[in-house]
Design a protein that fits this description.
With about 90 residues, the protein is mainly α. The chain is about 50% helix and about 10% strand. The chain has a single domain, classed as Arc Repressor Mutant, subunit A. The chain is built from 4 helices and 3 strands, in the order αββααβα. A 3-stranded mixed β-sheet has the order 1-2-3. Helix 1 crosses helix 2, helix 1 packs across helix 3 and helix 2 crosses helix 3.
């Protein structure tokens, strides 16, 4: 997989992978609110994308680190819909 600017920053790499696989999405009205879509296949695909990213030093991220960061980001995301829009 080609290198990109996010490859050396695990947080950014995971965020990008979750968004591009449509596992998460930003609320169209509140850009600071990330919503977890709940698609297990998209989340698995995001993991595989990050796992295959090559950092600038030629290495890849450890699977455990990727899982921890994906879990952290998904844990912080709102489930299904924006809580600010629900009000």
């Amino acid at each position: 997989m080609p290198m990109n600017n996010d490859a050396d920053d695990l947080t950014a790499a995971v965020r990008h992978a979750l968004e591009t696989t449509r596992a998460t999405a930003a609320c169209p009205f509140h850009w600071d609110v990330i919503i977890r879509v709940g698609d297990d296949a998209a989340e698995s695909h995001a993991f595989e994308r990050v796992r295959k990213m090559i950092r600038s030093d030629g290495t890849t991220w450890a699977s455990e680190a990727i899982r921890a960061e994906i879990g952290r980001q998904l844990g912080e995301a709102a489930d299904g819909q924006c809580p600010r829009c629900e009000k």
